[in-house]
Amino acid sequence: MSKRVGRELRVRFAPSPTGYLHVGGARTALFNWLWARREGGVFVLRIEDTDVTRSERRFVEGILKALSWLGLDWDELYYQSGRLDVYRAYAERLLREGKAYRCFCTPDEIAQRLKGLRGVEYDGRCRDLSPDQVEKYLAEGRKPAVRFIVPEEKKHTAYLDFLRGEIEFKRLTTGDFVIMKSDGTPAYNFACVVDDYEMGITHVLRAEDHISNTPKQIWLYEALGWEPPEFGHLSMILGPDKRKLSKRHGATSVEELRDHGFLPQAVVNYLALLGWSHPEGKEILSLEELVEAFSLERVTLSPQIFDFERLRWFNRKHLARLPSGELLQAAEPFLKWLGEEALADREKLTKALGLVVPSVSTLSELVGHPDLIALFRRPTLSNEVLNELSQGKKLEVLEKIVARLPSRLTRDDLRPLVRKVAAELGLKPRDVFHPLRLALTGRDKGPELAAVCEILGTEEVLARLSQALATTKSER
User: pLDDT tens digits for 279-310?
Assistant: First the structure.
């Protein structure tokens, strides 16, 4: 995508801190970030926190942490709440130039007057107030909003969307719209225009639900005598039911995905492929690989379905790619249930994760995982297991294994040992493996038993087998 001649690419992500970072917003941030990094441009983060009733500091912090967790760093950071004087100054300019006016109508008054009228936002009641009437209302303590005057010729407008081509709006019915609220804070469209201009934004890449805001923003640019940035609108992200992705579909914020045990690499990889494709059809990609391959020419405009099972598949792939040290670091918040002693044994934890993680899709599945329980907690054998061990030659199997355990049991030692015991007792190897697994883990299935034994170590294997023998005999 070509940039303006002689100007550095400057894009922005501008979330409102009225909630946690939605995956749709994260996808918008990601595409802007990838584009900026690919082109050597600037990625601006702007927190649009002028809605004092809904904006919360905890959501601001959540957004910053979520973006950092995803690996999306920013070059410049702004808060709209610190720029109120800037918006007021530009509003005063529009008032002086006769392009805006003070409106003293309350929302209830407007709703009453427009009752029954369709497609009308405001009837212009205050547009022709005389200076004396304005002063009278101000003296009475009324707090006016400021409305932008929409010229009649602007009711039909069009703009060139750099993703979608020309978009035309016919017979727009919007009335004069508020640019400054009666509480002195700016309306979204006005603050957005002022900030994008002052921050030098060259391209606005955002979701398609902002298309309807574009005409108002273009009118404001023209009224202020500024060249607007280029606008492009991404497709929406939908749930499996083809409706806008929301809470009813499950985890929809980046924070929730993190807490469910998804890796940031997997989330970024999956979001990048919601509306973009790699030129070689590759699917499993690192952030660096995404930067190298990203281009707007491969962005598709069809609605994208957020498929949690597909995300889980990406997460499994990225879990398998993680070096053991990074895997342990990522998994640690989901292993606290094991206790301090287990967490302190980093070598055993690393080996255990290498054995267990291939069976999970998210790190949260490690919480209470039976294979981890078997590796870190000596089992209490159920009556069913004890009864099973008392049948046939199973106790003889355990006794012979105990008698022949090497002083340092490795993964390579177990299979020859099992074959030898099986031959002595006239059994098949699987008839030796089965009681051995029951005695060691209390379960009849699990990871490769040789790897389990190596992680447990000879001393623990001997202790568990001896306990199983003693308990089973006492129950006979």
Answer: 999 999 999 999 999 999 999 999 999 999 99
How sure is the predictor about 4, in pLDDT bands with cuts at 50, 70 and 90?
very low
Tokens of 428: 């098949």
In the CATH scheme, what is the code of domain 85-180?
3.90.800.10
Residue 193 near residue 208, CB atoms below 8 Å: no
pLDDT of residue 3: 37
Instruction: Give the tokens for residue 145.
Output: 């909003």
Rg (CA), the chain: 32
Parallel, antiparallel or unpaired: strands 10-13 and 42-47 = parallel
Q: Does domain 378-475 match CATH 3.40.50.2300?
A: no
Q: Are 102 and 146 in contact (CB under 8 A)?
A: yes
Residue 439 is predicted with a pLDDT of: 96
CA distances 302 to 235, 236, 288, 299, 473, Å, are 6, 8, 26, 9, 67
The pLDDT of residue 309 is: 95
Annotated domain spans of the chain: 1-77+235-321, 85-180, 322-365, 378-475
Active-site annotation holds for 136: no
**115, 242, 247, 445: which is the annotated catalytic residue?**
247
User: Distance (Å, rounded) from C-alpha 75 to C-alpha 33?
Assistant: 10
Q: Tell me the CA end-to-end span of the chain in Å, nearest whole number.
A: 79
pTM of the full structure: 0.91
- Per CATH, domain 1-77+235-321 is 3.40.50.620: yes
Measured CA to CA, the distance from residue 439 to residue 242 in angstroms comes to 50
Note whether 443 and 374 are within 8 A (CB).
Answer: yes
